[in-house]
Design brief:
By secondary structure, the chain is mainly alpha-helical. The protein is about 95% helix and about 0% strand.
Length: about 100
């Protein structure tokens, strides 16, 4: 009679383990989804910042060239372009 009780307890423990694994899998999926949404929000925020920088650069292009010289303006454009490239790479990574 002890043997059936042990087998019954083992079956109950296996069932409980399966349920815990399913809950853990569900929580992991939710965590990954939340992480993806956070990444998308970060990317959107950085994209907006880059667009504002581009707009400001275009608006002040003439005055910057007069004050700083064409090379400084071009340097700013290169930095913005590099940031946009990095942002596009982040977007591609989060879509995978």
């Amino acid at each position: 009679m002890t043997r059936p009780k042990v087998e019954e307890d083992a079956s109950a423990l296996r069932l409980e383990l399966a349920m815990v694994r399913a809950q853990l899998r569900d929580q992991t999926i939710k965590l990954m989804e939340a992480s993806r949404h956070l990444s998308e929000a970060d990317i959107a925020y950085e994209s907006n910042r880059i667009e504002k920088c581009v707009d400001l650069t275009e608006e002040t292009n003439g005055s910057q060239e007069a004050q700083e010289g064409p090379s400084d303006v071009e340097s700013t454009r290169r930095v913005i372009s590099a940031a946009q490239t990095d942002l596009n790479e982040l977007v591609n990574l989060t879509e995978v």
